[in-house]
Amino acid sequence: MKKCILSLLMLMASMSYSQGSELVINDAWIRAMPPSSRVVPIYLNIDNPTARERKLIGIEAEAGSIEIHQTIERDGMMYMKPVDEIVIAANDQVRLAPSGFHGMMSHFTQGVPEQGEKILLTLIFDNGAKQSTEAKVIKETLVKEVKITHVMAQ
Ligand SMILES: [Cu+2]
Question: How far, in Å, from the CA of 116 to the mean position of ligand 1?
Fold first, then answer.
């Protein structure tokens, strides 16, 4: 019984860390870019196992300022546009991935993130919940391997 209470307390502690959000954020990564880059893209997955729709309305980091972007194709050309929010439907998931939604970091406080570095991100949702995740900076050539490993692990 004591063990039960202890694990319950630990569960409550981890829940308060995510400040009420019941979403699951994983596989966050940032593309390693040349040191002269003005912007770098951020990718991650958000799972919403709840019965309510949620919206991602912002991403924050001490490492720089971040906008939410969407890549769109028009007349065979790829464009990016800022979006105010990303809807994560109930019992659904959203991927911020190349050629789709992504975070776009600029105005770096400590320079362009380097390969292997880990950047703490805080995701902000429309219900006021904030949830943090660590994004690893990865070279694009390594990304395919990550994806393949991920698919095989499922
Ligand atoms: Cu962008």
Answer: 21
Q: What is the pLDDT of residue 52?
A: 94
Q: Say how many Å lie between the CA of residue 151 and the centre of ligand 1.
A: 25
Burial class (CB in 10 A: 0-12, 13-18, 19+), 122: middle
Residue span of the structural domain in which 73 resides: 20-153
Count of domains observed in the chain: 1
Tokens in use for 1? 């019984």
Per-residue pLDDT of 96-134, as tens digits, reads 999 899 999 999 999 999 999 999 999 999 999 999 999
pLDDT at 142 over 90: no
Which residues have a beta carbon within 5 Å of ligand 1, which is an ion?
69, 80, 104
The CA 51 to ligand 1 mean position distance, Å, reads 30
49-54 mean pLDDT: 94
Domain with 87 in it: what CATH number?
2.60.40.1890
